[in-house]
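FAQ: What does a multi-protein file look like?

Like this. Sequence, then tokens, then the next protein.
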Amino acid sequence: MKKFKCTKHFPKKYQAQTTFDQSGFPIYRRHHIWTPRKRGKQIGRLLYTHHSQGELWYLRLLLTKIRGPTSWDALKRINGVQYKTFKDACRSYGLLDDDNEWHEVLSECCKSGFPSQIRQLFVHIIVNCQVTDLLHLWNLHWKHMVDDIILRQRNVSESPQTILNDKQLEFYALAEIDKLLRSIGKSLKQYSQLPLPPMSYMQAGSNNLVIDETSYNMAEMAAEFDKLFQKCNAEQLDVFNAVLRSVDKNEGQSKEEIESLKKFSEWVLRIGNGQIATPRDGLFDYEEDDIVIPAQFCDPQLTNDVENMIMWTYPKFLDNYKSPQYISERAILTPTNQIVAHLNSAIVETIPGESFSYFSVDRAEDFGA
């Protein structure tokens, strides 16, 4: 060994026959002489990759065609044009076929297949076949995959008037595709060409609250907005623009507050869906419909009574009770009108001054007749 290079023609001693050493271990025969490659530099072996591995597969394809690349960007540079992905470079290099056969298969299935079958076929194609333009394939065929989704959402919401626009239907269809992919150990995130729906659609399932909040006609809402927006005065426009700027800049709440509100919202949704069971820990004598509020949503420094709840919800009440904004920003949710009356009485009693009772009018006298 000189200068970290082997000076022999073979790295191990030549051995004509297999023998055994003193410890009984075999010393295998070595007939062939190892010699370095005499000319040129090249990759001797590339690991196998499946086309479902995405960019890794396209990278391997380029390595087998382009000689002497000096960097990843060099592999993605075809005829002087720099491409963003290895797939785009492969397409420009002419290494990819068109997707006509996949379009024909899906079109044939759309003529007689159920929406669920079309979704299953689509997943089979993108997982097991080589699709060049996945987004184009999706855009041409996804509308045939949603007929059952419309009926399902109407049945869940118990409202035949439930309306879903194209964007909502596409999101629900993508969520169904993600479910099928996850059943075989994959997910929609692995297919970057396909749009990723919001998490509310991925987790919606049969959540009535989500369905109710998304079941509206966007065209009608847009028309209503245009109508009301034109009637805004200067002060209202200032408020409107300030709110939009705050939303765009994600101002107003810290990440901790947003995360806390998110957890609380999810807990409230679970209550609404009947997914919160009555505890059976034996510590208290719970009623059948009792719900235990998690400690993270409670203030351990306050005792559990009505007065503290009012003080926490309406801080500095006597200084602000005349402010409409202060009152409108706060509320205490109660299950029955009886508790509402009790809370109202408790709050009103703290207001100084004489109280008056105003009764409703059954009929009006005709004066001046």
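And here is the next protein:
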Amino acid sequence: MSSPRTQMMKPGNTLTARLALATLAMAASTTAASAAEGMPQLDFGNPLMLAQVVWLLIIFGVFYYVLSSIVLPKAASVLEERRSRIEGDLDAARAAKAEADAAMAAHQAATAKARAESQAAITAAVEAAQADVAARNAALNERLNQQIASAEARIAAARDTAMGALREVATDTANALVQRLTGSSNEAAVSAAVQRELAAQGRA
């Protein structure tokens, strides 16, 4: 199987050969026509004319050799190098795109994983905070209830003590007044009257 360089050289060689043959044919036909018309400068019997024809063939041969051996191979080499460079650039671009796609997919997966983990951590932290707050509220309510009950008990005891002292003072005062007014006193009756009065006022 022929290489791209050989395939590119063949059309150039054929074209050059055709040009050379066409030029020679035109020269021969022109020479023959001129000789037929009697032009002495195209008389092939003249040695100078033969030398010119020989040099013409030599020049065309050199021209053909230069085209087929130097110019066209260099052009084919340049085109092949350019094609190889373009293919290499395309392959590199495809590889870079594949790497970029893989990196993007990995980044998206990592982002989704991090988002899920952060959401789970936030949810766990919120639940733990709520549980801690609920426990603290329960403990605080229990302590407040105990303090309220203790305060109520102390208030009730103080009230009972105060009411007892008030009852005693009121009884003594009433008994002294009755004794001063009547000259005699009935402590039981006075105490019962004071008790009824305090009960009526809600202080018993």
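Q: Is there any per-entry metadata?
A: Some entries carry free-text notes. For the entry above: Residues 1-12 have pLDDT under 50 and may be disordered.
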